[in-house]
Structures
1.
Amino acid sequence: MRAGLLLAAGLVLAGASAPGTPGVYDAEQAHVDYMLKCQGCHRPDGSGDEQSSPPLHDMVARFLTVPGGREFLGRVPGVATANLDDRRLANLLNWTLYRFDPAHVPTGFRPYTAEELRTLRQDPLRLDRVAMRARLVAGFAR
Ligand code: HEC
């Protein structure tokens, strides 16, 4: 019953949010998934915190501008190990980019697909992610 209501509400909202965002087949689903799986760390507004979770706001799409950044976004543990199927994860990651950092999404960006994330998440980053992240961030344009 509750799931049915949520679904109905989601359909109404998704219908209202045209024109769509590239690679986002269901914006309302993405928002709910973000609330349930991501915002505890990254905060509802994507601001993160200074200690543990990085901001997504005005930041996350910059990774798409440096070599290796696209793969990094699919392999960070918060993304790669999320309890979502590949299609829903692609929907969520594409939504995250446009929701929090549309200004840095490069022209000609190809949205993540379920197939791409299936491959990337098979190889989640572990301790190496800290150094990799620092190297990528150092390459961002100022
Ligand atoms: C337990 C806290 C936590 C959760 C939950 C979490 N993240 Fe993260 N996220 C992090 C941390 C910490 C990093 C920095 C890289 C690292 O050390 O894993 C990060 C990095 C990222 C990055 C790469 C950008 C960057 O600045 O490093 C993206 C994209 C991202 N998270 C998205 C998500 C999404 C989408 C979800 C929900 C499916 C999620 N995260 C859930 C803590 C979290």
Note: The domain at 2-138 is CATH 1.10.760.10 (Cytochrome Bc1 Complex; Chain D, domain 2).
2.
Amino acid sequence: MFSYRKLVAIVLSAVALTAVAQSRKIEGIGRTATANEVAAWDIDVRPDFKGLPKGMGSVTQGEKVWEAQCSSCHGSFGENNSVFGALVGYTTKKDVETGRVASLMPEAATPARTTMMKVSHLSTLWDYINRAMPWTAPKSLTANEVYAVTAYLLNLGNVVPDDFTLSDKNMAETQKKMPNRNGMMTQHAMWPGKEFGGIAKPDTQGSNCMTNCATEAKVASLLPEHVRNAHGNLAEQTRGFGPSVGADTTKPAAGSGAEAKKSVAAPAAPAAPAAPAAKASDKAVEVSGPLKSADVSAILSKNTCSACHGIDNKIIGPSFKDIATKQGVKADAVAYLTGKIKSGGSGVYGSMPMPAQGINDADAKKVATWISQGAAK
Ligand code: HEC
Ligand code: HEC
């Protein structure tokens, strides 16, 4: 559940801040944050409700906020699971009494796990909405709107009545009604449970090697190649300055053995992030030797080709391998495939048509080249 992850994040960032504070000061870089800047970042609301701004909002007001800003994604009753799991459902008045959500029990065989079933702390719900929602415009809600829409969700979840108003004054009182307030596990290091006499059991177990230690790290698991670029090229999505520029995910990872080329964008490169990467991919067409899926995966995901075509597997359209087998033998395969990629078609593989694609000529040609060469992984 997110409250746990959030706590981990807070602890980690506290550690990181301490480390930064202790590290050497670099002349000419940075300045002390102003009080206003710190205040703008310091928005967390703690489980003891420290950090809550003053304000209030009723269920009725919350319904208006919900309909205008939330229901398009989460459904009128928080029931929609098309963009994310349903937020509301399967909590009862009985759960409000016990603090344990009965539908979470295995024997209930509930078909879904909703946010309201799982969340144990009202502060988490408030804080999450305040910092992250609506998804497309985080931090755009006023404090009163957050109170109101939180009240509305609680009302949908049978926690508070229709005429309820949530405010900084009654958050703690309302916490005592959270359906799953007693449902959290404490059997891990973050909250050493009383049942273990306060002895923490970390999530990961390891020991410090003191003698005969391995001198080289052995990589035990790798990100599968097909997910590396699943969200498009990270190097083009992150700022071009600062300590950690996103890896160029159109190339295999450094040390993956697949390619010796450097895969992480030069950390200090201040140039506009998109330009160098685009040039690099144009060049790849000229490079001799067959193209690999890594050379085209950014194009395939940007143009959502991957939604319909797998490399090895048929989805809505045939697999790229099957296309390669069928069309790669053609003398004019590249020209033929470029044309088909741009204008779509039907009847070659079945009755399902492929719509015309708004893809640029260079990208279409590159994908066509890759397919004509066998659609190698
Ligand atoms: C454009 C779509 C969209 C809109 C509009 C939107 N949400 Fe969300 N919401 C999401 C997505 C996607 C997630 C999951 C995000 C993630 O896990 O990174 C989410 C997650 C949440 C969660 C956390 C659920 C959990 O169990 O982790 C809450 C609570 C929530 N939204 C409330 C709201 C509220 C309140 C509004 C209106 C003020 C709103 N959302 C508007 C898309 C949207
Ligand atoms: C909505 C689903 C869909 C999308 C999106 C899609 N395709 Fe297709 N594609 C198909 C279907 C279905 C066929 C089979 C059409 C047929 O039988 O003639 C196909 C066929 C093809 C063929 C083979 C044409 C032939 O005559 O042999 C190629 C090449 C191809 N698609 C590439 C792409 C590329 C590249 C993209 C992204 C720019 C893309 N497709 C996007 C569904 C899709």
Note: The CA atoms of residues 291 and 370 lie 5 Å apart.
